[in-house]
Amino acid sequence: MSTNIAVLGTQWGDEGKGKIVDLLTPHFPIVARYQGGHNAGHTVYVDGRKFVLHLIPSGILHDGVRCVIGNGVVVDAQALFREVDELQDLGVEVDGRLVVSDKAHLILPYHRELDVLSEARRGERKIGTTSRGIGPAYEDKIGRRGIRICDLLGDREALAAEVRENVSARNRIIRETTLDWREVLDQLVRDGDRLRAWVGDVSVILAEAFRQGQRVLFEGAQGTLLDIDHGTYPFVTSSNSTVGGVCTGLGVPPRAIHGTLGVAKAYTTRVGEGPMPTELHGPEGEQLRESGQEYGASTGRPRRCGWYDAVVVRYAVRINGVDALALTKLDVLDGLSTIDVCTAYEVGGRVLTEFPSDLRVLATARPRYETLPGWSRPTRGVTSFDALPREAQEYIRRLEAITGVPVALVSTGSDRGDTIIRPESALSTWLRAH
Ligand code: IMP
């Protein structure tokens, strides 16, 4: 890995990307988010203090690091202000370090309402969204009636016309209550005044940073299986969380991405609806949820838990060109007598080793498991591979073999220090050099 790397999720989100980004950030003067919105929730523990970041890259917790919110992100201005205020209350300086793309689309005051309504209309077929208005904001973007941050800072007449158009589209959908576009306009003008200090042309800023030889970490939100194109559609989010999103969501060329670090949990979780072949419904799932504290950082919803699914991670490795994996929450498996790993699916007598496109196929897929021995000595807080119980080392080696990619980093607890960086990995060589 040379200069800029992308860190992204290889499962259904919540892989622990926040901790990995936080760990790597001292090696990068710039961290840039390329998609999603405040549906994401990165929990980071620093010296025992808990930070939950939704929109601002976790790089903000490191002095001097510049944080970029790209055009591919949808921005809820109120959520951003809340986050900035909270950080500033904790003594974290944000001004002068945060750049928000002038091309980013806004989550408008009624997008949340539309999200909730759309879920209610779907009934049993609901997606299980975070109700943050993410989908409706992206719908407006694709429908070419979205409002971008630059619109708030430009011609007032043009903004008024756009707001009128957008609000009337909303009023056509929600007939019970009529929204006055002038009120929305006033709110947006106030938001624009506060946003102004942070707004910039992200593509220009990053091109200049590359020219000066500054390294950039591209931070993904959600995960590959939640990608609008490559995920378990329709049970996905509305953006490209896979590596292609880096280029479109920040305005950088493919050659600016020099390596991709995929983040995978040592087991699998998902929030929201949709098939999950390795889901455990009984006490085993419950045990993973409790020991992994698998509750959503944004919504507090209990996450569905199951065994590591190598079909899923192999798929993410292919889609994103993952060079190495960061394996997180290994310690959650401590104390289990055996651990299953899904190596393939069985569908109607056929064996599938590639992730199916058709959700109906996925819904009937039965995981083909390989059972590995667990370990009794705790791995929590272990910082070197050799100090792990032999069975835990075997588990990691087996995951590497069936996933087809090296595990460069292992996380053994929630704190920054609870991490193993494998000395023989390309990542370790790179980190030592930078
Ligand atoms: P939305 O992004 O709120 O529209 O939700 C769509 C789907 O993505 C739902 O299944 C959510 O639970 C899921 N989702 C969105 N953001 C995250 C995340 O940060 N972690 C895990 N799942 C997420």
In short:
The chain has 434 residues and is of the alpha/beta class. It has 14 helices and 20 strands.
Write structural notes for this entry.
With 434 residues, the chain is an alpha/beta fold. The chain has three domains: 5-15 and 28-101 and 199-259, Adenylosuccinate Synthetase, subunit A, domain 1 (Adenylosuccinate Synthetase, Chain A, domain 1, 3-Layer(aba) Sandwich), CATH 3.40.440; 105-195, Orthogonal Bundle (Adenylosuccinate Synthetase, subunit A, domain 2), CATH 1.10.300.10; 264-432, Adenylosuccinate Synthetase, Chain A, domain 3, CATH 3.90.170.10. The protein is 33% helix and 20% strand. It is built from 14 helices and 20 strands. A ten-stranded mixed β-sheet has the order 9-7-5-2-10-1-11-15-19-20, with helices on both faces. Strands 14, 16, 17 and 18 form a four-stranded mixed β-sheet that branches. It has a two-stranded antiparallel ribbon with strand order 3-4. Helix 3 packs across helix 4 and helix 6 (156-173) crosses helix 7 (181-195). The protein is globular. The structure holds inosinic acid.
